[in-house]
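Thread amino acids onto this structure.
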């Protein structure tokens, strides 16, 4: 995934309530995406809306993603969505292991399976990691290292170019925009994540892994987090549902 382009992923979570509103938000994103030069937008709507949106595969500025996939291909798994289904409605990306799914009981082992399944079937896996809180001893570094290594434990090296690590500290999600991480701190975390990746896979393998930040991003902090954080893009929650707010985020990132 990683190239000269920045990546901004819209995680709509369990919103909006109906297809009319979903279409409206998506159309607004599509319009803005046409103006972007260096940024690709990935919209991850609830899966029931996925097939409402037709995306021209030649359009390199806009892509579709799903918020979750299952770790098995098909079968008696009530309520789950398989990777082939996601692909066949046009998804190119899948969010894997979001903290909001982890609190619902998704384990490291399940997440590892999902990440491997996604990349082997040709999707780009947006693998989410993030600590619940921070401690003075830096134990959260150990926690994050384990999360990264475990989530990617079944991914073969040759698929690493389809892996995106989204660092979303749980304490910064759904907060005020002032509570988002500062760009310099984001930069430090990006270095740490790269170090863990290179220790696990070898330096020569990890160039293609994009790193995103998520957690209370808005138009005011988006540009600086990407620029001074020296990361590849953002994973945006609430503001991705606001056509105006999201447009400003995209413009800010594209100007970096
Ligand atoms: P907010 O942008 O609403 O804080 O959500 C972040 C997030 O969880 C994106 O996946």
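Threaded sequence (256 positions):
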């Amino acid at each position: 995934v990683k190239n000269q382009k920045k990546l901004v992923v819209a995680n709509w979570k369990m919103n909006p309530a109906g297809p009319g509103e979903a279409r409206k938000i998506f159309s607004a994103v599509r319009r803005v995406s046409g103006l972007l030069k260096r940024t690709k937008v990935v919209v991850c709507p609830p899966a029931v809306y996925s097939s409402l949106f037709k995306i021209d595969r030649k359009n390199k500025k806009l892509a579709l993603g799903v918020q979750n996939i299952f770790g098995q291909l098909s079968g008696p798994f009530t309520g789950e969505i398989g990777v082939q289904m996601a692909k066949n409605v046009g998804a190119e990306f899948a969010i894997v292991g979001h903290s909001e799914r982890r609190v619902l009981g998704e384990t490291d082992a399940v997440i590892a399976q999902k990440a491997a399944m996604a990349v082997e079937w040709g999707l780009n896996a947006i693998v989410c990691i993030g600590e619940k809180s921070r401690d003075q001893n830096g134990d959260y570094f150990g926690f994050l290292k384990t999360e990264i290594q475990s989530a990617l434990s079944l991914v073969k090296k040759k698929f690493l170019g389809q892996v995106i690590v989204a660092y979303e500290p749980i304490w910064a999600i759904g907060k005020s925009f002032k509570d988002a991480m500062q760009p310099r701190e984001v930069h430090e975390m990006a270095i740490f994540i790269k170090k863990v990746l290179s220790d696990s896979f070898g330096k020569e393998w990890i160039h293609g892994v994009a790193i995103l930040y998520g957690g209370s991003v808005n138009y005011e902090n988006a540009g600086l987090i990407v620029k001074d954080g020296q990361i590849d893009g953002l994973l945006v929650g609430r503001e991705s549902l606001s056509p105006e707010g999201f447009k400003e985020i995209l413009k800010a990132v594209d100007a970096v």
